[in-house]
Amino acid sequence: MSAGPTYVIEGEIRRFDERDTAFSREALIEGSPNEIAYHTMYPEKIEIDRKLARFITLKMEPGCSDDHFADAIYEAHFKSSAALALPDMVDGEPASEKTDWSPAQAAAKVKAFARAIGADDVRIGPLKQEWVYSHRGSRPFFEGGYSNAPYFSGIPEGYQGARYGDPVELGHSGAISMAFDQKKDLVGTGSTRAVDFEVGRVYAKSVLASVQLARFIRALGYPARAHHLRNYLIMLVPVAVDSGIGELGRCGYIVSRKSGANLRLATVTTDMPLEFDDPVDIGMQDFCDKCKKCAVTCPSGAIPLEKTLVNGSWRWKLNPEACLQYWGHTGYTCGICQTVCPWTKPHNIFHRSVASAAVNLPWIRRALVKGDDVVYGAGFSPLPVPRWLEDG
Ligand code: SF4
Ligand code: SF4
């Protein structure tokens, strides 16, 4: 029998309001009714939110950045994905005729489909209400349209009537979590155009896959909703932990036995009867206690040394503002913590054996941490940016 997920709950978990995420706050348009209302409630966030907004504006507004190559990459990956955020892309009516697969059969088919369209791992677990956002805060839901228009001009049909701050209700029973690996030779370049490229590439793949999987399930007769980079109703990481993709690491990312921290997630929630997987205990909580490599290496100091009690659960609480400010400082996404994690290693027999030892032999973990420092270096050594992604 499964021992359950490895996060420790103490007290009540309040559903998280998407308006409080850094990515929602940086999208607040200065002087808009939503911005004024939000910052009247949280005046202490005004300064930091405006700094974050400047970085995002540089990334997204045509002509604001002086790196046109990076802009073109951003446009290709992220703006294409935005079209798949529309309501009739992520959701819709199920077909009237239902397949009559058993939960085990349905789970096997759904996983095979997800892998066939590009997921590197796929697991199924319950959808717990505590991981469903309480209110909407993401970009397409801004009242009055999105004037800062990297994604849509005006309000597309389907979003009309949808409002920033709308309460979220999602009663699906299950969640299919998909993980997509990033290429370490690109993410390991630090905070560069190559990281932008790779993160965008993998997000675009995950966005399309989640939309495809949700449509597949609806066509089989069951409700299904895609949750991806551009349109979430849930917190993907704890949902993926519940399904057994991996454990929450110190770095704030989910860490999986196979791919380490170097992956991105997308999820489909559904009422299709599916056999659930168990959460996993790969020893991450103890390993991270002994490791700290991401915290020591992070250039922004965003990764903490100690766990704290955050909204009812003990965890290492990332400082997203510090992290995003570093991205703003370099002008690019950063992949340092995902790269230095000792679990982020090539998929080969040697590293599979080391991972197996880390999972099964708690007494060896400290030695493995030291060994990783000796072999790969205690700090971060950036890999070269591929020639084609350089200027000229
Ligand atoms: S992405 Fe970079 S800045 Fe952000 S937490 Fe990781 S290492 Fe730190
Ligand atoms: S780098 Fe070390 S401390 Fe950070 S997530 Fe990976 S194992 Fe945990």
Tell me the layout of helices and strands.
Elements: E1 8-9, H1 22-25, H2 33-41, H3 46-60, H4 68-83, H5 87-90, H6 103-116, E2 121-126, E3 174-181, H7 184-187, H8 193-219, E4 224-227, H9 236-243, E5 247-248, E6 254-255, E7 263-270, H10 284-291, H11 293-297, E8 308-310, E9 313-315, H12 320-330, H13 336-340, H14 349-360, H15 365-376
Antiparallel strand pairs: 1-9, 2-3, 3-7, 4-7, 5-6, 8-9
The site of one iron/sulfur cluster (SF4) has 10 residues, from α12 and α13.
Describe this structure in words.
It is a single chain. With 392 residues, this protein is of the alpha+beta class. It has one domain (8-150, 159-389). Helix content is 39%, strand content 10%. It has 15 helices and 9 strands. The protein has a 4-stranded antiparallel β-sheet, with helices on both faces. It has a 3-stranded antiparallel β-sheet with strand order 1-9-8, with no helix packed on it. The chain has a two-stranded antiparallel sheet with strand order 5-6. A hairpin with a 2-residue loop joins strand 8 (308-310) and strand 9. Helix 4 runs parallel beside helix 8 (193-219) and helix 10 packs across helix 15 (365-376). The longest helix is centred in the middle third of the chain and has 27 residues, at 193-219. The termini are far apart. Bound molecules: iron/sulfur cluster (SF4) (2 copies). One iron/sulfur cluster is lined by residues 249-251, 255, 261, 287-288, 291-294, 340-343.
